[in-house]
Amino acid sequence: MRTKITMQDIADFLHISKNSVSQALSGKDGVSEETRRLIIETAERMGYEYPSARKKRLSEQSGNIALIASDFAFAQKSFFGEIYLSVEQETRRRSKHLLIQSINEETERKLVLPLFLENKDVDGIIILSHLSTSYTNAVIATGIPTVLIDHHHPAIHADCILTNNRFSAYEAVQHLYDLGHRHIGFMGNISFSPSYHERLDGYRLALHDKGIAENPEWIVKDALEEPKYVMQTMKSIGTQPTAWFCVNDGLGFLLNSTLHQLGFQVPKDISICSFDNGQLSRLATPMTTTMGIDLNQFGRKAVERLFWRMEHKHEPYMELLLPTKLIVRESTASAKR
Fold first, then answer.
1. Going by DSSP bridges, is the β-strand pair 219-220/184-187 parallel, antiparallel, or unpaired?
2. What DSSP character marks residue 218?
3. CA–CA separation, 273 vs 170, rounded Å?
4. For 112-145, what is each residue's pLDDT tens digit?
5. Which residues fall within 8 angstroms of residue 93, CB to CB, at 6 or more apart?
6. Fold agreement (62-163+295-323, 165-294)
7. Predicted structure pTM score
8. What's the distance, CA 207 to chain centroid?
9. What's the pLDDT tens digit per position in 220-268?
10. Topology, domain 165-294
11. Which residues contact 229 (CB under 8 A, 6 or more apart)?
């Protein structure tokens, strides 16, 4: 008669604790992904039988994970493309197949879900970047575990993987302050994304902590990433600040070019610090000081959280804030006035 394999048998074979085996086989936190894979593979080889409820859940899984995003997000290949690749790699590493669907404006407006969501042919969903709150909630209403990357909203109840926007913007302003700047502007479109609004919050918190009064003329909250708009905005400002903080590298690049056309030298006359460490920050002349984001970590953490959520559907939702790194380049220098 065949002896039933227990968790203790697996633990003894691998020379680890029974608790680690239990955590790995139940999908709980507490062990590394490498250890989790080793335990699961060993359990399968030894013939371990999962409890009936767990076995039923495994047999019902499709083996598919969905990644959906707007046409706009998928078009931002230098930023979201890296996140997508890390999601794909991490999903494949966990023996799942990634299904990808781009959501156009009409589909989003009419709340038309991809067929693989309507038919519940996926075990989990990752939403990359910004989709409307109504569309995101329609996805969540399918009951399929969902994780958001780089977006959240008070009316959306789901796990989110985010940049620590407030503290990162604070650090950017701190960098400018340490260089002697006391006249610091802000440029972004805060209505486009909660992330940009949070960066404004971080900018304001830094000014408050340093005892610097806000100058409304230097706070541009509706900025468009268009050369004409940036030029008109810069011309409308009576006296330029000595430094600008931009919510992304696109605005930082346009601001650099515009100031040059207006006769200013960066950073001799005006310093610029932006956000994301994307391609445009490296193409700018001079290259832009920016807040770097670990895009691969976005994907890894999203998949990690999604797999946890698939096993813990009724646990409270959480937001994970990922840190950034200040990358100092030639666009920032000591203030001259």
1. parallel
2. G
3. 12
4. 999 989 888 899 999 998 899 999 999 999 999 9
5. none
6. yes
7. 0.79
8. 25
9. 999 999 999 999 999 999 999 999 999 999 999 999 999 999 999 999 9
10. Rossmann fold (3.40.50)
11. 223
Tell me if the domain spanning 7-59 has CATH number 1.10.260: yes
* Whole-number Å distance between alpha carbons of 31 and 27: 10
**Cβ(167)–Cβ(325) below 8 Å:** no
Q: Are 107 and 319 in contact (CB under 8 A)?
A: no
* Residue found under tokens 């407030």: 166
CATH class of the domain at 62-163+295-323: alpha beta
Cis amide leading into 286 (omega within 30): yes
* Domain range list for the chain: 7-59, 62-163+295-323, 165-294
Number of C-beta neighbours around residue 190 at 10 A: 20
**What is the side-by-side order of every strand in the sheet holding 243-246?**
219-220, 184-187, 243-246, 271-276, 289-293, 324-327
Copy the structure tokens of residue 316: 């409270």
- Give the residue carrying structure tokens 């770097």: 292
Where does the chain show beta strands of DSSP type E?
64-70, 97-103, 124-128, 146-149, 159-163, 184-187, 219-220, 243-246, 271-276, 289-293, 319-322, 324-327
Query: Identity (one letter) of the amino acid at 291?
Result: M
Tokens describing residue 106: 């009409």
